[in-house]
Amino acid sequence: MATAELVSSKLVDFLNASPTAFHVVDEVKRRLKKVGFEQVLEREDWNLELGKKYFFTRNHSTIVAFAIGKRYVARNGFRIIGAYTDSPCLKLKPTSKVAKGGYLEVGVQTYGGGLWHTWFDRDLTVAGRLIVKEMKDGSVSYTDKLIRIQEPIMWIPTLAIHLDIYALAKTWLNTQSHLVPILATSVKNGPIDAKFKIDGIKSHDKKIIDDRKHHSIFLQTEEICDFELQLCDTPQSIIGCALKEFIFSGRLDNLCMSFCSLKALIDSTSFESSLDEEIGVRMVALFDHEELVDKAIQQSFLVSADMAHAIHPNHMDKHEDNHQPKLHGGLGIKHNANQRYATNAITSFIFREIAERHDLPIQVIYFSAKDYISLSNGLC
């Protein structure tokens, strides 16, 4: 298998293992530990050694991994790639129980800048984390458990064409009232099938969470104290199109950059001598909520790795003639006169120089103020 095909296949595996930011971090942890990275805790003192590799997490949705050069001394810089673990989605509201018209529905809230009309008529399920009460040595403790129901248990049906005079113009969409998934009908509401039971958690009649807030399918056991769940697709990510050039998947923005950043760090530290001549710290920071800290360290260089929207063949007017991001065009350097991106002449030069030394194609991407107005109005 060609190198590009092999990397694409590994990216698809990463996407399929990562329906939520919590799952992303769990998968990244697994991969880092496999190649010798040691976990450290923010609340403890660190005893770091030159030439060693470490990582820490925050809120189970952010992870920072770094490798310390053997020639590193205090005040030497960091070489950082920043990406993020979250993607636009529908998250369950704090009170998600909705019942109307003979249906059991689930109250959700939009997260991020999604194309919400595309969520209709999808096979949907839920994934996220549970806060679970456990008994250990006679005392109560609380822990996180990741959950992902594989079967489609929800659906947001499109209104029948006969009743929808705005079917071709989705400007009518009200995310509060129209984007509400159906869970079941009231008539069939009853004991939940065992296939939705959560592994490792015993079933009880008593519920810790108020069942007036959520449907019983989410409250099957006494041990569940709280949860953060979101909707996600059940179909797997795949490589498709006639010549197998495209990845059909949600969450590409920005899990693709999370994957590439992780791979770069692992590959660049994979040999015993990888850090012998390194004077800095190689670091990857994968944040939830795009929470990059707006801080510059004088001797450091940060690459904020994000996705770019390639030119759409049916909407070519959305890009200027001289700035049309193209597939196969290479890595994009994003510019904006109002500094919506941090790119300047120096950082752009360094990036281009690195690309040239490694024979990597690059292309310049420019977004004007007009583009951002259109984006903020949901027009493109």
UniProtKB/TrEMBL annotation:
<keyword id="KW-0645">Protease</keyword>
<dbReference type="GO" id="GO:0006508">
    <property type="term" value="P:proteolysis"/>
</dbReference>
<dbReference type="GO" id="GO:0008237">
    <property type="term" value="F:metallopeptidase activity"/>
</dbReference>
<keyword id="KW-0862">Zinc</keyword>
<keyword id="KW-0378">Hydrolase</keyword>
<dbReference type="InterPro" id="IPR023358">
    <property type="entry name" value="Peptidase_M18_dom2"/>
</dbReference>
<protein>
    <recommendedName>
        <fullName>Aspartyl aminopeptidase</fullName>
    </recommendedName>
</protein>
<keyword id="KW-0479">Metal-binding</keyword>
<dbReference type="InterPro" id="IPR001948">
    <property type="entry name" value="Peptidase_M18"/>
</dbReference>
<keyword id="KW-0031">Aminopeptidase</keyword>
<dbReference type="GO" id="GO:0005737">
    <property type="term" value="C:cytoplasm"/>
</dbReference>
<dbReference type="GO" id="GO:0004177">
    <property type="term" value="F:aminopeptidase activity"/>
</dbReference>
<dbReference type="Pfam" id="PF02127">
    <property type="entry name" value="Peptidase_M18"/>
</dbReference>
<comment type="similarity">
    <text>Belongs to the peptidase M18 family.</text>
</comment>
<keyword id="KW-0482">Metalloprotease</keyword>
<dbReference type="GO" id="GO:0008270">
    <property type="term" value="F:zinc ion binding"/>
</dbReference>
